[in-house]
Amino acid sequence: MKGVERVTVCIRLKRLGRRHLSHWRICATDRRTARDGRVIEELGSYDPCASNDRKVAIHRERVVHWLRLGAQPSETVEQLLAHSGLDRKGNEVAPRPWRKKKTPPPPAAKKVAEAKAEAPAKAAEEKPKAGEEKAAKKAAQEQAAAPAETAPEGKPEAPAETAEEKPKAGKEKAAE
Q: How many angstroms separate the CA atoms of 87 and 11, rounded?
C-alpha cells in the first residue's frame, strides 16, 4: 500500500505545572509530535511531589490496550509502570517499591560514621598539653619584649643629654 503512512505510537510524559513545581501526564502520542503537543489519548498522571502511593495514577485498561497494540513506552514511563505493577508489554508484575530519599547509600553512611568517630581523636592529638601551652606563651612574650628594649638595626641611637650638658638659659642671663 503506497502512500499510507504508518503511525508509530509511543507512551510518554507531557509536562504541566509551573517552574520548579511540575507534574506530568502519561499520554499515548505519535512519536513525531512535540513533547507538549497533540496527543491521541491521555492515560494517567505522575506527580513527583505527592506521597509514594499517590505519585502515579493510570487508567490501567487503556495502558494495557495501547501496549498490546505495539505502543512503545519511554524509559521514564516504563519505570513508572513498573511502580504500578505493569511491564513494557502490559503484563502484570510485582510492583516496584519507591526508593527512600532521605537515607544515604550504605557506603556513604559508613564514611560519615567513621568521620564522626575520628573527629574527637584528631582534636585531642592536635591540642597541646598544659605545660607546653604555658611555655609557648612565655616564649611569645619574651620575643615581643626583646625588640622593644634594643634599637632597630641601621638607625644610630640618639645621644642621651644629661642635665649638666644642657645650657641653662635662665641662669646664664642672670650671671651676666
A: 13
Strand blocks (E) in the chain:
9-18, 21-30, 41-46, 56-58, 72-73
The C-alpha atoms of residue 114 and residue 145 are separated, in whole angstroms, by 46
Non-local CB neighbours of 14 within 8 Å, separated by 6+ positions: 24, 25, 26, 27, 29, 35, 36, 39, 42
Q: Is the pLDDT of residue 151 over 60?
A: no
Residues 47-54 have a mean pLDDT of 85
Query: What is the C-alpha to C-alpha distance for residues 113 and 22, in angstroms, rounded to an integer?
Result: 36
Sheet with strand 56-58: strands edge to edge: 56-58, 41-46, 21-30, 9-18, 72-73
Residues 35-44: contacts with CB within 8 Å, 24+ apart? 39/14, 40/9, 41/66, 42/14, 43/11
Q: Is residue 129 pLDDT above 70, yes or no?
A: no
Residue ranges of domains in the chain, CATH in brackets = 9-84 (3.30.1320.10), 106-145 (no CATH)
